[in-house]
Amino acid sequence: MAGNFDLNQPLVGAGLESPADEEGVHVSFNQLIAEQCQAGERLDGFELQQLDEESRDYVAELGSGFESSGRGLYDIESDDDGRQTDPLVSVPWSSATMKILSSMPSRTIGRSRGAILSQYYNKTLQLRRRSQSRPSIRDFSHSSRPSIRGYGMEVDVIDGPQSEMEKSERLVNNLQNLSMGDRMKMLRGMPLSVVEKKELRRKTLQRDKPLTSSSKIPCCSQLKYYIIIAVRHSWYSWLSFLHSLQLWQFLLKRVGGRFGTGVLSYFLFLKTLLFFNVFLFLVTFLFLVLPQAMHPPELPEERRNFTGLDLISGAGHFTDTLMYYGYYSNFTLRRSCAGQHNTSASSAPDCLSKRLSYNMSLAYFFTIGMSFFITCIILVYSMSKSFGRSFRIDKSYSILAMKVFSSWDFKVIKKSSVELMSENNCTQLKEILAEVVQKKEKTGPCQALWRLMVHGLAWAICIGATAGCVISVYFFSEFMHKDLQRTARLANTNPLLKEASLLALPALVSLLNLLLPGLFNLAAWMEEYHSPSVRTYVALGRNLMLKVSVLAVLCYHWLGRVAAKPSDINLVCWETFVGQELYRFLIMDFIFTLLNTLFGELLWRLFSQRVLGRGRKPAFDIARNVLDLIYAQTLAWIGVLFSPLLPAVQILKLLLLFYVKVSSVMMNCQAPRKPYRVSQMTTIFITLLCFPSFLGASVCVTYTMWSIPPSTSCGPFRHLGTMFQAGKRWVQELEKNNPDLSVVAKVHAYLVENPFFLFVGAGIFLIVIYFYSQVVDGQRKVIALLQEHIEKEGVDKKYLITQLQSVHERKKGISRRLRSQDSGC
Fold first, then answer.
1. pLDDT more than 70, % of the chain
2. What is the spatial distance between Cα 376 and Cα 762, in angstroms, rounded to a whole number?
3. Rounded to whole angstroms, how far apart are CA atoms 635 and 638?
4. Whole-prediction pTM
């Protein structure tokens, strides 16, 4: 046995032994073959004869099924003409082999209806015995009384019409005595045609009618049935109503049906970002904006009038509003006993117990902190759930079979819905078929070296262009900062001109974000990727490199220059200025996105069709548009600390962007030339949103709250060294007023003040994600081994059939020799 042990065998690694390595298995196969041949001789009394031409055709047709099911798994021989033939069908099968094959369970479906009816009669009888109490035997008719034969499996014998009708009647009687749920479950599991199942169901219901007539059912039972039906109908109607309330359901189906899952993933990701911003807006509105709006602070008398430029710059009239950090007070908002508003900290002792207070600085600190913490939990949960959905082990063949046989919803009867579902299924089938037929190209060493050089050149161009953009943004931001210092020293400056000059940096960054992806697409065209999904992933990586680099330079500009020395540019409230900068970047990014949609898609389609005379339309750039969404969402997460209403601006932007993009895609874009299925693209989008985007925004916000001193004349933290001291001071006052709550102070000191626990929590999240991915990877390996085991079982079946045929050939040779000897004698 040691000589036969091979570590390269795939089944050995799975802990399974291959039957091809055990001689005892071959002996048992030979014994089984001999027993089947002897049984066939005893039952039918026929001798082994050579098949005629008609049976040969049938055998060849039957063998083609084995050939197609095992294609790619078994060795295929070639004849002299170069045609491929299966060794199993190279010679005609004997009648004994045919009889054994016809008795196999996989060959009985649809051919022996009597055996199937008898088998399911026994199942229904056993099910009825388990689910009901045993009634008296007199209650049964003679045809449905249990028999000893009900406990065994009937062999596949040829039944006459009379016997088949009797079995059908007995099965109908047993189905009639089952509950409706068990009856439908049993009918669904029968290996019969749909017509035969409908006939059995019709016969069962016909016999149920006289038993379930309204005259024999009590009034209470009828009322109970009516109530159950009404409640069930109401529940289904409510579920249908909730399903119809899903946002953009019909539009998403149209996009997915026409352009495939790749373009659809962009709009689903936009919908996900919309829900994140709605959550963030609700939290900040309820705990920050609404309390401050109910207790407005005193505003300066000199306020600028509203101008159209304020909508783009975010300054001017919007400066002293709920939009920005500087408007919020640092007092404890109170409601006195007489119902008058008071924002002072002093109060009369007789009314202290009846007063409602709201610490604005504490609410600001904990609202921002808890909103980020809950967002982190939702992101990690969404990412883990998306991992489980996208990294499934289903092979393309199995997914194709499911789509072909079980993807149609027969409840859809509306014409437009039927056409939409048909288009959607057709697109998904194209994507799956493209994945099935794709082949890995075999390249030689020279060609591989050439492709490696091309990829290296393309990446060098992209990295160089990104570095040039980052350097230009850095020096231009430094120039703008020096310009602000110069204008701050001037006495007479036009405020409108100053606001307009502040739009230069956002315009430059948005312009670079618009032009550089075109260069990346040119580099990808030079690389000639054969797989559209690989090309999309490479474009995602390059665009991500650009966005992250630019955001890093901008964060340094805001927190390292503006916040470090706000007096150099004559800023009273640097938090408000940073909030206005983030607002300008969001608005400018939206404007350039609209320009890209207009010039990059609409005008290019018109130019291509009317000037160049081409029927092709531009393809939708998934990587660029997705990274634009992640870039804007990062700005919104950073800016929520400096502008609590910035998520509302992001919500309006996403709503408008969705309808603009849907209209542009339907009018100006076309489906990809090579359909491809992107089962893992949504997971990649969520992962990029979590780690580079949300993690970077969290680091910036945490650094601002823990390290940078706030402004001394505005905002809820104006008299504190850092924003973080608001929570620390509240805990100290709580411990001073109530010594029994000293545990809260200790918990705050260990969990909040100590950054070690923050890193531990982040590490736990990362470990959970890692273990979840490892579990999915283990499931993938186990399923792959099980699929390989199924394939090996198919090999075993073909080996058994081959051995049956060889036994027949040996017996036929022996019989010929005996006949020749007898004739010679």
1. 73
2. 10
3. 5
4. 0.72
